[in-house]
Amino acid sequence: MPGVLGRGIQAIADESSSELQKAVVSALAIGVIQAAAGILRHRRAVGSWISAATRLQQLVARKAVDLGADLPRLVSTGEVSAINSNDVERVARVYDLIPRLSGALVSFFVVSILLINSSPTLGLLVIIGVPLLGLAIGPIIKPLQSRESAQREKLSKSSGLAADTVAGLRILRGIGGEETFLKRFQIASQNVRAAAVRTAKMRALLDGLQVILPGSLVVGVIWVGGNLVSRGDLRVGELLAFYGYSAFLMIPLQILTESAQRLTSGAVAARRVMKLLRVENLQSHGNSKFPDSFNKLTDLKSGLTISPNQFVGVVCDNSLTADELVDRLGGYLESEQVFVDDTPFSEINRDQLRSHIYAQEKEPAILSGTISTLFNVKNSGRITMAQAIEAASAADILDSLEGDGYNAEVVERGRTLSGGQRQRLALARTIFVDAPIAVLDDPTSAVDAHTEARIASRLKQIRGSQTTVIFTTSPLLLDHTDNVVMISEGRVAAVGNHFDLLKQNDEYKRLVVRGE
Amino acid sequence: MKWHKPPRPTDESVLPTTAYPSPPKDTSRLEKSFGLEKSANRLPIASEATVNSHMWNLLWSHKGGFLWVAVLQLLTTSAALIPPRAFGGLLEDLKNRPDATQVKNTVYIVIAALLLQSIFVYFTKVRASILGEFVLSALRERFVSRVVELPPNVVERAGAGELLTRTTTDIDHITWAVRDAVPVITICLVSIFGISTAIALTAPLFLAAVFIGIPFVFAATRWYLRRSPQAYRVESSSYAIVNSVLVETAESGRTIDALRLGDQRTNRTDASISRWVEWERYTLRLRSRWFPVVEINYILPVSAALMMGAYFYNRDMASIATITAGILYAQMLAGPIEAMLWWIDELQTGKASLSRLLGIHEVEDREIRNGSPTGKDIAGEKVRYGYRSGKDVLKDISFMIEPGTKLAIVGPSGAGKSTLGRLLAGVQPPNQGRITVGGAEIGYMPVEQARTEVALVTQEHHVFVGTLRDNITLAKPDASDEEVWQALRAVDAEPWAKDLEKGLETLVGSGGVRLLPAQAQQLALSRLVLADPHTLILDEATSLLDQQAAKHLEASLGSVLAGRTVIAIAHRLQTAHDADLIAVVEDGVIAEWGSHEDLLSAGGAYAELWRSWRDES
């Protein structure tokens, strides 16, 4: 383009209308080509960053699914989220860069050749000058980046505070303290402002340098070129072209500087993504089948043994012990120490294990979606959704939701539901799955006594002869068990019938009985 | 050229996973497809007019700052205009009579101009960012200060998610827009003005050439701006959904594993990704049509200037110097025009977020009626309440609670116990009937007054980011250490609090020491002790504690709360047994009312339940 302009000016100076026409037509043609090439390159760049980002996100999501229950023990949710959004994006941006970077390199070389052809002196001046200028900007990049990261840190702190205040807003409005929290946020927000201005000063310095440095190249071109013209070695139009080229080459130069930054942060991000993708499962899984009928489940650590086809209650002196035992019986913890007959869980195929034992944790997740999607799980087909909901006394929840119940949206991972409602929905889901062995961790802790009593009898009835292990201290549930195991200090302390234990075992009575 | 998009603000908040519509194939139908998103909003969104007038006010209140930036930029532009002019002059001279001294002089002029320009650039940028950051901090602080005074019922109805999205995502969007767009647009406007003036002064005839492309750019940009802001908004929400689906997968790892939902989750992730990609491609399509037109604008003026230059030169109406300067100026103009259009676009996205932020200011305030309580007795008269019309949760409830009474509310889930608790705490007034404290309707009292009368603690617990002390002294920020420890003792939290390394100054909440749910619940109760209202409503406030611990806590709390009215909503019958009065709520009405003994001898639902429970003991 500068070349064409130079030719145009020269043509005007020479009063050559045919040259001028050529110049104008080529200017227009180049403009169209530039626009077309520009948009094609942009499409290419966006296309490649999208496909890089989506592939990485899919990998991360598959890894998360694969880690499953082990994931929370290995990586924090916040980190997974940060990797999925920030790091994946940073890696993908490298792909976005590649078309531009290669374009920049190509245009640098093409222009260099053009320059050397028309004037070796000027050509060399520009070709050596541009990279030198690039290096001159270098020293300022580091302090700029460190100020930027300080600013980001302050920003995330202030938005964290705002989010925290909003999350606890019900409490603040109910009890007070809005002023304190508002003041805290204002301080954080002002810190962000100060940090941002500090960064901006550094960036302004960079902007100033980006005027003066390329400018000095322009000065050089005018100086050398002007003298060449005055000696008659260069034409006026050509000098204008050189002036244009030296300005034009700043674009590839900027892209190169940017590339250096992007590639560095992309590499750091890629390492973080890889670290997540390389995390290995905690529990090993073999290929053995889970026996269709078994004689006993045994946990070596606690000495707990479960016989098939029973409705068993387990009473623990400590709720943490109960949580741990449920995890062990589900094969989520030290699965080489838990046996079905003589086979350790660690030798059993994962899908086999999960399809035979369903261990419901204390606060099972209610995934967002409708009530119907909640029940969109692998199940035996023996129990209908309605039966399961009825057995868990959860029918009233459907009535309270908007829409026709089953299609009602359970928003925000069930957070709009009360603790008791979430618990009953999860229980209904467990009943619906109808696993041959069901292990339940305190499934009625947030349910009122009326409902608990109803659930207890219905649960026993609907489970029928399937093996059911309930960790609870509620007499309303224990009343319906065939057998009760009491765990004290991590070991089996007593086994027997609920009523017998009540009469004979003082510790059991203390754990179970409420009311005087 | 800034063709790559600015980095996307990350969003870790929870977004409703309500499916966003696919981008339309035919762009004219775009507007219609946004209906879905609107219905999901439970908080108001400010109208276009409000947003515009607010933006205008904002600009006006910072007019001094803008003036600074404008003047500095005018100086910058002026300095930037010198080199092309000097260079044009040089070419003219060289063409006429080649002379080396001319070259030297030009070089000096150019060096001086460049130095000035870079100094002005520095100060313009610094001033602009001081201005931008000032506007930003004012915006976000004004928003948060409004959020913390929202009526409680609005907070409850909106849910944390919606407010969180506005606090995080929308503030982020605005940050991106304001931080760069406002200064850049100011700078561009001034440059365009400056350059145009320069052209008018040196070669007025060229102005026509320079603006030849403007109508095209204007039309294309209008077309683009009508579609892009919403499209970018949906695009970034759909990107946020990709992440929230993954976060859900990660958080629910155990459940997903147990239910063998892995494939389902993978499909869901893939679906959310492809939905996002669809939008990403749609906005790309919009850009693909808009950019080329803008790009042509670089070339049209230059070609036109060349032709006009030839015409004028042939008629001796312009010198080579004028023509060179004119053409170079025409080229200079394209940059700021494009940058301005680009950032106007960015500003549009910011505007969408701004309309959501400003929407908060349109939330109706709580209705306040006169009347101060003259006592501490609580009464309900024919109270009716339903969340939706036609479905009353509470039906015609009347009662009278003497000061100092311990009342337990029991009943099956979904009977309306928690709703009654909320009305008693004055979160909102009933639809019909009255709930009064000392004769004054609590639902119509200012929030700050109502909570000194009645305080509500629910099952929901939140540990604020901050010190343990910050978490307890909400109602009494100047409480002494002794008072705080006393509050902790009252809720049996002293032992574990003492074990914390830095005691009351220990950082808790997200990022600090993690407290167990049961400990968080103790904190919630300790706040109450310092708040010291005469009536407390405890809605399952000890449900996360162990059976034994809850029993113990209630006893020690009881001694601190002696003489106060306590209304406990509980599923543990133990709580009912210990209360002075029991209300059995069933299906929206008070089915039974009386002391434990009364109800037992009445032989109703409560007696039956109690018996089934006692039989085992």
The biggest sheet of chain A, with number of strands, parallel, antiparallel or mixed sense and barrel status, is: 6 strands, mixed
Strand order of the largest sheet of chain A: 6-9-10-3-11-12
State the oligomer.
Answer: heterodimer
Radius of gyration over C-alpha positions of chain B, nearest whole angstrom: 34 Å
How much β-strand is present in the residues of chain A? 5-15%
Strand content of chain B: 5-15%
Mean pLDDT of chain B: 81
Structure commentary:
The complex is a heterodimer of chains A (516) and B (617). Chain A is 67% helix and 9% strand. Chain A is of the alpha/beta class. In chain A, the strands form three sheets. A six-stranded mixed beta sheet of chain A has the order 6-9-10-3-11-12, sandwiched between helices. In chain A, strands 2-1-4-5 form a four-stranded antiparallel beta sheet, covered by helices on one side. In chain A, strands 7-8 form a two-stranded antiparallel ribbon. The longest helix of chain A is centred in the middle third of the chain and has 53 residues, at 178-230. Chain A starts with a helix and ends with a helix. With 617 residues, chain B is of the alpha/beta class. Chain B has a six-stranded mixed beta sheet, sandwiched between helices. The longest helix of chain B has 53 residues, at 262-314. The radius of gyration of chain B is 34 Å and the shape is elongated. Mean pLDDT of chain B is 81; it is low at 1-22 and 24-41.
